[in-house]
Amino acid sequence: QVQLVESGGGLVQAGGSLRLSCAASGRRISEYGMGWFRQAPGKERDLVASISWTSSNPYYADSVKGRFTISRDNAKNMVYLQMNSLKPEDTAVYYCAISRRPTATTMTSGYNYWGQGTQVTVSS
What we know:
Blueprint: E1 3-7, E2 10-13, E3 18-25, E4 34-39, E5 46-51, E6 59-60, E7 68-73, E8 78-83, E9 92-99, E10 111-114, E11 118-123
Parallel strand pairs: 2-11
Antiparallel strand pairs: 1-3, 3-8, 4-5, 4-9, 5-6, 7-8, 9-10, 9-11
């Protein structure tokens, strides 16, 4: 059974940093793209960042470019999201997901396994 567990969320002041981690089990992620999504109350779940199986050409949503960095450690079956210069509008539940393919798409339908999410709250 494939399982993704996110951790590292919490409450932080604006301008602060958090590092989210996603631990995968039940599947080796080394051959799959990975993504981090977020969903704020009353809003759709949107892609924040994604990374291919080779870590080439990571994608970032415009709203987080220059502030967030996605990375992966295939040997540890882990994916990370370093979030710097956090803003109140970054407040959301953050989810990691495994892509159906080695590449990573911006579409939620392109991912077939999801974690339960971790809450990130940024106070002003």
